[in-house]
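During the second half of the funding period, the structural biology subgroup turned its attention to how the target accommodates small molecules. The most pressing case was adenosine monophosphate, which had performed well in the primary screen but for which no bound structure existed. We therefore specified the complex as follows and requested a full 3D prediction, including the ligand pose.
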Amino acid sequence: MKVLVVGSGGREHALTWTISKNKDIKKIYCAPGNAGTEGIAENIPINAEDIDELLKFAEEKNIDLTVVGPEIPLINGIVDIFEEKGLKIFGPGKDAAQLEGSKSFTKNLLKKNNIPTALFLETDLPEKAKEFIIKNKKYPIVIKADGPAAGKGVIICENENQAINAIDDIMIKKIFKEAGEKIVIEEFLEGDEASILALTDGNTIYPLPPSQDHKKIFDDDKGPNTGGMGAYAPTPLISKELEKKILDKILYPTLDGLKREGIIYKGIMYAGLMICNQEPYVLEYNVRFGDPETQAVLPLLKSDIIDLFFSSIDGSLKNKKLEIENKAAINVVIASEGYPGNYEKGKVIKGLDAFKDRQDIIIFHAGTKRQNNDIVTAGGRVLNITAIDKDIKSAIEKVYSEINKISFEGMYYRTDIGKRVFKYL
Ligand code: AMP
Ligand code: GLY
């Protein structure tokens, strides 16, 4: 079997690594991949957003299955385009991908189906948004660009002044470009965040181990937001009882609500949740695997991922079993100094060989590339160090006792990934 993985981050390396465990795999291609995927797949120089070139490649090579990492190709309809040509591809179609592509689409769907989420106003008129703000007396308030803005389109405002400026920035100055044609205004929810990545074929939903991302750059959740500086799974924040509530009150009603709009959702449903007093609220939906959550979640998967992907595509998930290791995993992101702002590239990474034969520590590459005989930094988030152990406490200890075997000039990581777990235990 020949598989094409689309994307180049830590998530895609983790997907490639998990796929490579399947015995029927003859070849994996990664478009464009990184220095980590290179060891288990053939990297091909096609951009993850270039659907025409990806299609041409998949047809030429008779690819049996395509797995898409990032959201943009999904939102732009890669699944419909591949399926029209008879190619198998895992993920939601263009209609379903609006769940991430448009916050107002999602907000309306949630409202219509009584799915818990923050109160809101949705508008494409800056005057209407400002009128709402002037009447509002409750702060903080959350203002979001409607379209996808690489996780950056959310502004939490502490007062009226900030809120008016946020509306101007998003809708008039267009700091998030066309993502800001429309905005969504939300009540601020106070609680603990969790990421639920769930596999679905449109009828059956299997949640993967619940996880928590760490979005801020500095320890104690300080500083600006990043793509995510680490994650761990399973999080004890989500008990079995709460997981059932999430399925019954959120995930199934979303799937059914979409069905009533004539949309069958297949692939990964990633619900970004706020848990407030043991009640889950939807902050957002993503239509793909999360990064860095995937790097902590997939090493816990015992079932064959290829089998699950095909079952999602052909609607036979209910005949399958989702088996999960009774262990915990943590993923600490190593970044380049300066990230999420400016940073330098091309620094030689040392120490990777120390983990070559380890089963309990896996290095998933993100922004890396090969340069002659070296592997050098090529992005803001550079490596993901994933440790697996019997429980989360042991996994945290393991990752932090080993992480300094890796080194490069200007390497930076958070020292408190997973530590909020002690609050829940
Ligand atoms: P989003 O892209 O919509 O998930 O928002 C990004 C981040 O902003 C979330 O992970 C939360 O930390 C925060 N956030 C978004 N919406 C709210 C809300 N209504 N209340 C509190 N925090 C929020
Ligand atoms: N972990 C955040 C994301 O994948 O969007």
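Two results from this model are relevant to the next phase. The CA atoms of residues 334 and 413 lie 5 Å apart. The chain has four domains: 2-93, 119-187, 192-319, 329-419.
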